[in-house]
Structure formats: structure tokens, C-alpha cells
Amino acid sequence: MDMPANALHSMTRLRALLGEGYDLDMVRSLLQWDQATYMPDGGADARGRQLALIGRLTHERTTDPEIGRLLDVLEPQAAKLPHDSDDAALIRLTRRLYDRATRVPAAFVAEMLEHCSTTYQAWVTARPANDFATLRPMLERTVELSRRYADFFPGHASPADPLIDQSDHGMTVASIRPLFGALRANLVPLAAAITARPTPDDRILQHSAPAEDQLGFGLEVIRRFGYDFTRGRQDLTHHPFMTKFSLGDVRITTRTREHDLVDALFSTMHEAGHAMYEQGIRADFEGTPLANGTSSGVHESQSRTWENLVGRSRPFWEHFYPRFQQAFQVMAKVPLADFYRAINRVSRSLVRIESDEVTYNLHVMIRFDLEVELLEGRLAVKDLPEAWHARYQSDLGLRAPDDRDGVLQDVHWYSGPVGGAFQGYTLGNILGAQFFRAALRARPAIPQEIAAGRFDMLHGWLREQVYQHGSKFTPDELVRRVTGGPMSIEPYLDYLWEKYAPLYGLRADERAPVVVA
Amino acid sequence: MDMPANALHSMTRLRALLGEGYDLDMVRSLLQWDQATYMPDGGADARGRQLALIGRLTHERTTDPEIGRLLDVLEPQAAKLPHDSDDAALIRLTRRLYDRATRVPAAFVAEMLEHCSTTYQAWVTARPANDFATLRPMLERTVELSRRYADFFPGHASPADPLIDQSDHGMTVASIRPLFGALRANLVPLAAAITARPTPDDRILQHSAPAEDQLGFGLEVIRRFGYDFTRGRQDLTHHPFMTKFSLGDVRITTRTREHDLVDALFSTMHEAGHAMYEQGIRADFEGTPLANGTSSGVHESQSRTWENLVGRSRPFWEHFYPRFQQAFQVMAKVPLADFYRAINRVSRSLVRIESDEVTYNLHVMIRFDLEVELLEGRLAVKDLPEAWHARYQSDLGLRAPDDRDGVLQDVHWYSGPVGGAFQGYTLGNILGAQFFRAALRARPAIPQEIAAGRFDMLHGWLREQVYQHGSKFTPDELVRRVTGGPMSIEPYLDYLWEKYAPLYGLRADERAPVVVA
Asked: N or C: which end of chain A has fewer CB within 10 A?
């Protein structure tokens, strides 16, 4: 950094302080990873206490008034640097995070963390028991805590906005609504046209296979994708996730299902997508807030890219299907075309994480709308189970037989605040297609390469364009740099149409016009 | 606690402060456990940094001047309580730990932790490569750091004393030397008499078995011992250890060997012994320094009890040998007597952890003497490999072909300070036999119970007499309470003679007279 000596000194000091907050956050992630993978039941109480303690210490570090004083010294210097200077980006990001963190008292953070840890433990047993009654008072408190969180940010249009901003900086309820509205206007007729056609048979996927074979195939695939096992590993859990203990240790988790040959595989691809984003961040960002994916939406764009745009694509399976048939003998006589139709089967279903590319966003938008209503006080927690059923009825024409696959189905509301947790999934679908279109434009041979079982061209382009930058650019800046324009739903709708129209024999006149809000 | 209100308030505050130090220490243990079990190579640098940070924070907590002020308030109150009151014990222990911790600057602690983490990572690859040259400068720095540590405790007779006191409170080089001297005076002739007899054939144990079968048998045994899997688990590592993240989460690790049917089994019993001690501590001690084993020697007494006094005993195998033969078909035709002789084979060997009950202590005493010489400046690190070989030549009549099984063999000097790391093993052998004699006196049916595959009587007695108390009593207090007298080598020597004289056909006149120092 081209700065006077005292500013250089301040920069060094700032990096040291940020490094401690970063490492404490990584330690917290390890405590959570262990809780979700290996921890015996007897460890739960102490773990909640330890998470609360580390959470409090992290908050103390990230709100240290010395950071504020250093920023005051450094900002005038950073203003003289080019906008895309690393140091300028670090100062801007640190200011944003510091201002956000200092608004929230440490005691509140600890209260929230402890409450979430308790609620998560309760959810683990309450969901299989279909027991919303036990969780209801906890969820009421979560909503209340989430509102109190929002209150620390006066001036917001919706109490959901500060929570959305936390995961998808720059977005608000007001900016998401028209985007989701336009998307829904296209997806609803698309889903209707598809589900009016005969449903492909996916019973061919419903076979038992030893867990180690399922896992083995997935590990081989993500190794080929470029997931770096010297800087990561995979373990088993109930609800798969990616986590990071440093840029050199980015782990994924998965689970196997007994009567499903591909569920673990697609989950593995999904988490590997998240992990490759983190593994691709510039090593010199380590220990700073730049060493994180820039938003939940951009993160999800990468998990969905590797799971869907690559992993459910025809070129991918042209290469991998013979190996898959070898690994799972029961598939020996099933033609590739049938398999490809089965893994891309579109159907109205009750469970988000089992849903297909076309209806997935309908699940997400239901959750987004409900959490905004909860936060804005237009929906009470006691009425949530029924509101859930009503929305599934109206949007997907289905009603879950219980709360297990209703309001208890996702971990999010039971492990963190209510608000800001879901929009990223759909933003990710939109951005994934947008980035992928840019990649194909830059390197048109990508599909041929994938059909040869190689992914260097795509992975290299994504690393270069997206991954390496971590949080250096805001989501909006990144999208404009990579695609030349703002976020747009058009590439995603084009992608869906081009993939699913031939699969289901849709006619061109059945396509709804893309109305961009 | 029967105290005035302000003292009660101080006690509550003290417990809160101690709880944070305790939890940070548990978090540190998790970081280390992960490092030794699952962490990919790429995580090493950041892990060293994170361990140093948590170590520093722990040190800040345990040296918080507020603890000193609270102790000043509470000590006069505690003095009025009976000596064996829990609160009085907590105050005494906290004072000892606080005074010890406040002598050592935080920056030194961080330096030591980071150095040890780096050295450990280097040892992991240097040992198989027989590469002492790489480790030598690191070990030189470890010795220097260990001496600097001792310098924070002026007035010691040997720089090893403060390090010994840390793990075996109350012991010094001066008090250990005569004890070890008397032990050696008995063990050397015993080993000589035994190894003059024909060596039992232990090739019957050198067979391959699937890792899962080896692990399965060990897990079944320790479940029967009473190791509680709802408050623990076992994972794989290179160098087995026990660790704890709370009294509700006490884990063990092991490793399997390809051509050895019992190595993993005895290692599992050993670590389970450590773990059952910790699992047996009173739950209401959680979050305080009372919730730890009281010394390295007492800890080791329990691992050695379950591994040797139980696990290598005739009654144990009378019950378990038929199951062992079922699990490992290759043993089907081997009589119990031969198996029993094989697992109790005494031979001069090069590797401590593979050595037998009789020669084990000779290995330990070599290390103890060498580390004292290193610390007292009578031996340079550059001369250590040769000094090691010379001592093995003189004490065991053997010379390792390389440093891998010489000076590189144990992790201790490469993962912590030099000094205080080894005496506990031999103190443990001594104390294990002493406690076991007391147990047999109180409950003479223990051997019959073991021969029936049950361990409740022994486990219950040890929980009652030893485990539950954690660190409430000093090692010396505990030994006197449990056995009615001070530490004594007699029960151990009696145990060895009574077991090995019949096994090897030794005559009564071959026994050296027990000379207690």
C-alpha cells in the first residue's frame, strides 16, 4: 500500500486485529462441524456454552473500538487508491462489517447464539417426532430476537432488510420482490406445462447401494471437478453443509440414503461447489474478511452450478454414465437417455432439497415470503404451520401430511435468525446461470471438455473471474465485472427452457414471455 | 459454602471466570484432536495460529488479576472450612494454578504453543524419514524454551522441577531419583533373570486382521469395562491419546497395525483407562479445575490398570479368549496358555510403547534421565541421538539402527516442552499396582468378577475412591486416602514377581530384596 508510515503501521495493526476475529470465527466453525458430525450426545450442553463463549469473544474482537480508530486513520488514505486496490477493498469491507457489528451489543449476540444452539438441539429430535409444539415457543423467541436484531438498524423499510443485507449485501425486500415476482410469472407456467406431460420414471434410481459405494463415486467426481482434498475432506452428517477452518481447510459433509443411488452424489457436488469457491480465494487474503465468499447468492450460484449446470447436464453424464453403471450394476441395462430424464424429473413435491431445478425456486419463495411476514408481524408463529400448508396448496398444489415435511423441514429457522436465510438460494440459481452463460461465451469448448470428463476450463474460468476475489467486490460489483451487466433472470430462464423444452417436448408457443421487472 | 454474602458473591464470580478458562482449554483440545485425527495437511499453518491464539486467551483468563483479588477475599473464608470441603479444595487448587500461571508471561505461552505446533507437524514427517537433522534446531529451541519456562520459577533445585510439578504436583528430580533408583535396582535383575529363560513365541500374534475387526473387538471390551459411549467416542490417529471437551465428551483415539492382532486392543484399553478416570469425575465439578485428573502419575495408573492389571491378566482372558478366537479364526487352535504367555512376553526391545511390563520402566527412566540432563545443560541436543543409543546399549543391551526408533520415537519432546513428560508413566505403574492392591483388599472377589467378564466391582471401587474426586486431592493426599500410606514401589514389585515368576519359572532366591529408598 502506497501510504505514509503511520498509515502502514495502522494497516499492519488492523490486519492483526482482523486476524484474531477471523481465527475465532474459524474456531467457532470447528465447534459446529464437530457438533454436526462426531460429537457424542453427552457433549451437547458444554458445546452450547463453548459456542456462546467463542461467539462473544469473536464479537468483542470484531467490535474492538481500536478497529474504528484505525479505520478513521486509514479511510482517507484508502480513498486515494484505485477502487479495485486490495487494501482499499479491505478497508471498505471492514468498515461495513465494523459498522454492522458495533450496532449489536455483545450480550445480545451471546443470547442469540445460545438460543440458536438450544433450538438446533431440540429440532434434531423434534423434526423426526413431528413435534412443532415443542419448538413453537423457541421459534417465537427466535422471531422476537430477529426483530430485535433488525431494531439495531433503524431506518430499514422491512425488519427483514438488515438480515437480508447480512447474507446478500445490497439486496432488500423491495429489490427482491419484483425479481422474484418476474421469476414466478415465468416459472409457474413452465412448471404447469411440464407437469402436464407424462412424468419420467425415476424408480430406476431407487435402489439400495452400500454407503461406501455411493460416497466413493461422489468423491471421485468432485476430485475431477477440482475439489482439493489436501485442503479439505468429507464427513457424514444429517444435514449436509460446507464449512471452513482456514483457506487451507475447507470441508464438506454429506449423508447417504438407503434407497437412492444419486441423492448423496448430488449433495456432494453441491457442497463441493461451495467449497471450491472458498478454496479458490487468493491465499494472501487469509486471515482477513476478504477470505470469504462475497454473498449467500454468489455462494449458492457455485453450488448450483456444479450440482445442476454441470452435474445434471447431458455432457457430464456422457462421460460418467458408463462408470456409474460399473459402480452400480443395477443400472447396467438402463439407457443413458432414461437415466438423464430421471435425474431431471420435474414434479411438484413437498421437500425443497429433493425438488428439481424448475420447482425449487417456488419452495424458496414460499419460505422467503413467510419469513418476511413473520418479521413484519403479519403472521404469528402459531399460525405458521397452517400458512405453510396453505402456500404449498396454492403454489404447488400439495399439502404435507404433517409438519415434519412442512414447517419443520429446513434447519434454517431452528439454527439461526428468521430472515435472510432463503433468498440466497434463488439468487444463486439466477446468478449461476448468468455466470455460466458468461463462461460459455468466453470459452465455448466447456461443454465438450465436460463431455470428456474434464473441468479445468470451467473451473479455471470461475477461479479467475469469481473465486479468487473472495469478498473483494460486492455481489453487484462482481456480477457487473463478470457478466458486463446487473443481475438478470434471463439467462436462468433461457437455460431452463433450453434444457427442459426438449426433455418434455414443450412447444415454443408455450413459453411465457420474459418480463424483467 | 457457609460464607458471608460478599464471599458467596465472590465465589460465584470466581466460578464464572474459571469456567471461561476451562472452556477455552476444552476448545484448544478440540483443535488438537482434529489436528491429530481428521485435519487435512493444508490446515496445518492456520491451526498452529489458532492454537496459539486460544492458548493466549486461555492464559489471559487463567491469569486474570481479578482471580487473584477473589482468591484474597475467599482464602480466609476457605480456611474455616474442613480440609476436604469441595469449596476449600477449589480455592486451594485455584491458588496453586493461578500462582503458577501468573509467573509465565502470555507472550511466552503463545511462543511456546506455536513452536510446539510447528515442531509437531515437522515430527510427523521427519520420524518416518529418520530425519533428526531437520528437527534438531527445533528441539534445541524447545530445550531453550523449557529452560526459560523453568526460569520463571526461581529457587528450583533443577530446571526440570517446575515442569515435573506441572504434571506430577509435589514431585521433584530429588524425590524421583531415589524412587527410580530403588525400582531399577529391582527391575534390572528381574529382567535379567527373565530374559535368561527361553522367550515365549509371540509370532502367534503376528497375523493380519481387518482393521474393523481389530477395532470392533476393542470397542466391545471397553464397553464392558464401563467406558461410556454416550459421553465419548473413538477415532483413528497416529499416536493414540485421550482428550476431553467436557465431562460429557471424553474421547479416545487408536490406530491399527497390519500384522498384529492385539496392538490396537491394548492401546484401546489403555486410552479407555484414562477416559474412564475423566468420565468418572463428579459432574458438579464441570467447568472448574477440579474436573481433571489430579496428576499425570495417577492418570497413568488408570490407563496401566485397565491395559495391564486387567487386560493382560489371566482372569480377563479366561472370559474373553473364546470370543477372541471367534473374532480371529487364526487363533482357533492356539491354547489360552500360549496366548497368555505371548501377550506377557518379556524382551529387551527398542520401542517404549511396544515394550512389556517389566522393561517398560527402563525405557521411561532413560528418557527421564536424558531430559533432566538436557535441561541441566549436561547434554547438548546435538549429542542426544548418541546419548540415547549409549543408554539403550547399557540399560537394555540394544542399539537402534536409526533415530526413528531412537530419539525420534516418542511424540513428547516434539509436541510440548522437554521435561516433566515421562516420569508419570513409571509413577503410574507404581500407583496402579498400589491402588489395585487396595481394591483387592476391599473387594477380594474382583478377580472372579473379571473372570466372568464383568468389571462393575473394580470400576465402581475406582470411581468411588479415585475417579470422582478429580483434582480435589493432591496426588499425595489421594494416595494416602486410598491406600492408607505414601506412594510405595512394593505393591508393584510384588505384582510383577507374582505374575512373572510362575510364567518364567523363576526361583524364589532369584528375587532381589526390595530396598525402599
From this structure: C
